[in-house]
Amino acid sequence: MFISLWEFFYGHFFRFWMKWLLRQMTGKCELQRIFDTYVGAQRTHRIENSLTYSKNKVG
C-alpha cells in the first residue's frame, strides 16, 4: 500500500518539481546529468528509470 502510494506521488508530483529544480540549478536536462555522473550498467539503469517515469510515452 505504502509503495503504490509513494509511486503515485513520486511519479505525479515530486519527480516533476525535483527535475525542475535540478534543471534550474545545473542548467542541464535529466539525461545530461545522468551521462555526466554515471557509467556502465548504472547509467543504463538510470536511463531506463527515467524513461519509465517519463510523461511522454513512445510506442
Description:
- It comes from Rhinopithecus bieti.
- This is ELMO domain containing 2.
- With 59 residues, this protein is mostly helical.
- It has one domain (2-53).
- It contains three helices and no strands.
- The protein has helices spanning 2-26, 30-37, 40-53.
- The model has no long low-confidence stretch (mean pLDDT 87).
Sum up the structure in keywords.
59 residues; mainly alpha; ELMO domain containing 2; globular; single chain
Itemize the secondary structure elements and their pairings.
Blueprint: H1 2-26, H2 30-37, H3 40-53
Protein name: ELMO domain containing 2
Largest β sheet strand count, sense and barrel closure? none
Count of structural domains: 1
* Uncertain ranges: none
Structural shape: globular
Through-space gap between termini? 29 Å
Rg measurement, Å: 13 Å
Give the total of beta strands: 0
Mean pLDDT comes to 87
Q: Approximately how much beta-strand content do the residues carry?
A: under 5%
Q: Please give the count of helices.
A: 3
SS content category: mainly alpha
Helix content: over 70%
Query: SSE order in H/E notation?
Result: HHH
Protein name: ELMO domain containing 2
